[in-house]
Amino acid sequence: MNKRWHSMKLQFSLVIIGAGILAVLVYMGVNLVSQKTLDSYFTDKVFVAKAQKKSADEFQEFVRKNHINSGDKEALDNWIDRQNTIYITVFRDGNVIYGSTMIDSEYYKNQPFFNIEFEDGPANVYLDGFFGYQFYLTAMTISLIISVLVFLAVCIGFMEKKITYITLLEREVKVLKGGSLEKEISIRGSDELTSLAHGLNDMRVSLKENMEMKEKLRSANKSLVTGLSHDLRTPLTTLMIYLELLSNGKVPQAEKQIQYLKKCTEKAKQMKVLSDQLFESVLVAEEKEEELEAPQMVQYVMEDVISDLIMFLESQGFDTECRIQWEPVKIAVSIDYIIRIVNNISSNIIKYADLSKPVIIEIKYSKNQVEMWFINGVSPSRNNGESTKMGIQNIKSMMDKMGGICEVINHDSSYVIKIKFPVK
Prior knowledge:
By secondary structure, the protein is an alpha+beta fold.
């Protein structure tokens, strides 16, 4: 549903309209009940007769004190205005002398009269009024107050609910600020506050993942430095021993000197490979998501780098066996990453592969993947003590950034690296 139907502005407008309708209904109901209750008392004949008698006595006293004539309209109007809810009609000899209301004379034939002594003589006075006026006015006021309270209660209840949720979000944000990212942000309703809560929850998850990633990187870097220190110490110690023997003249034979120099060169190359892998590891870790090139045929992407790899391995004395059949399948990659991955694979083969066994390069296709297999024999006489496995870790990191997978299968006599690309 459209978000505007769940907006707080619309909700509050609907609450005001609903509260207004409810308040009107409450007013009508309370007023109706109070009116009926008052009517049952103030329309009673006994009460009306007493009220009329009391008002007639007060009118007689007014006439007596002020010496009012029966035709003194101004004086009689003033008294009527002060009473507010009483009206009178003055008769003499069947004729209306004064009337505060316009009522047909037939109406008075069966009505009770009061004999009032005016200054100019006695006259019959019909007197009536709205004797419970103040009570009716009070009842209407109370009904109005109750309806207003109902309106305010509904509106304040709605606002209180929203304020309570805002207060809850504030407390939970303070928990996040304190570093606790495990507690989820409460999700209620479907308005702007709910969207805010979803945003806070997404931010919490993102922060948590970033912190976990940083911790993993910190742990990985620690292991990397520890392993690298161990890996460098062995060739460095050997290199220092050979150089010390050569510099101190303790190797007089020329053949031995050449042999020791070759060993120094070998150890220096080994240290260079380790330092290159360390640099590669740091570079891959710091790179953001790699922007992949447009999908291309797998042959276009891989053919040149595989050819270069085969030529390089054969120049190093390896036999190669290529089991590749190109098919019209497209993959999206970073060419820079592909070159670096193949370089890592070739470095791994040079260091640890058995020269007497061929290096097999194979390609396999499935519905959703293209797999490149690099298989080599494992030489027991070569240095297999690389504890950091930086080259493999670098390959896995680059494949992950391209949306692919790197798998390693390590047997006693063979070593397999699989790189898998999703088909586009």
